[in-house]
């Protein structure tokens, strides 16, 4: 099975876990701590129509970007979990613990496959921020589940996410670090919304010589 099939299988068996509940609680706490951080304040200036320190844009994708950035700026090092939690909580209402559980697992699967590709002899992807690259896939899966997408739409979501996977390791310790990781949550929610509207993408966006794993290890 391809990694995409493995991830869709996770979605088909999504169930809440104690770990996901803990992830959500830690995300909420970290987002509160980082709510007035420099990266979040900078992002808010991009939306002058939503002025004020407590204002949140009404776009789910923007809410995901801001809350993920705040949580990552909160400084507890749980970047992947915060991106997935931000996307899931912003995308809609539903079984959020189940969505987070499989989203985090999917992100871990993608990161492990990237590492396996490196060990198999491909070039070292160490210049990329692997948590940022892999988190968008898991967050897209979580957002898609929150929106009630079909398996076909979830596959398209993963493809749309893969086209936007990015993040450089050199930025991790700067103000751009939380912003680039938080953008993964934005991209994930946007991808799920586009898939719901009928947008298509690669059916196998992760495996293969022109897909994500090969791209980030060359």
What percentage of residues falls in helices of 4 or more residues? Answer: 55-70%
State the CATH class.
Mainly Alpha
End-to-end span in angstroms?
A: 23 Å
Biggest β-sheet description? none
Number of strands: 0
Order of helices and strands: HHHHHHHHHH
The Rg value, from CA coordinates, equals 16 Å
Strand content: under 5%
The name of the CATH topology is 2-methylcitrate dehydratase PrpD
Separate helix tally:
10
Structural class, by secondary structure, is mainly alpha
Mean pLDDT comes to 87
Shape: globular
Question: CATH superfamily membership, which one?
Answer: 2-methylcitrate dehydratase PrpD
CATH architecture: Orthogonal Bundle
Return the domain count. 1
Describe this entry's structure for a reader:
The protein has 218 residues and is an all-alpha fold. The chain has a single domain (3-215), classed as Orthogonal Bundle (2-methylcitrate dehydratase PrpD). The protein has 10 helices and no strands. Helix 1 (3-12) packs antiparallel against helix 6, helix 6 packs antiparallel against helix 7 (130-146) and helix 8 runs antiparallel to helix 9. The two termini are 23 Å apart.
Keywords:
218 residues; 2-methylcitrate dehydratase PrpD
Q: Mind sketching the topology for me?
A:
Elements: H1 3-12, H2 18-33, H3 38-44, H4 60-73, H5 79-91, H6 96-119, H7 130-146, H8 151-164, H9 176-196, H10 212-215
Quick structural gist:
By secondary structure, this protein is mostly helical.
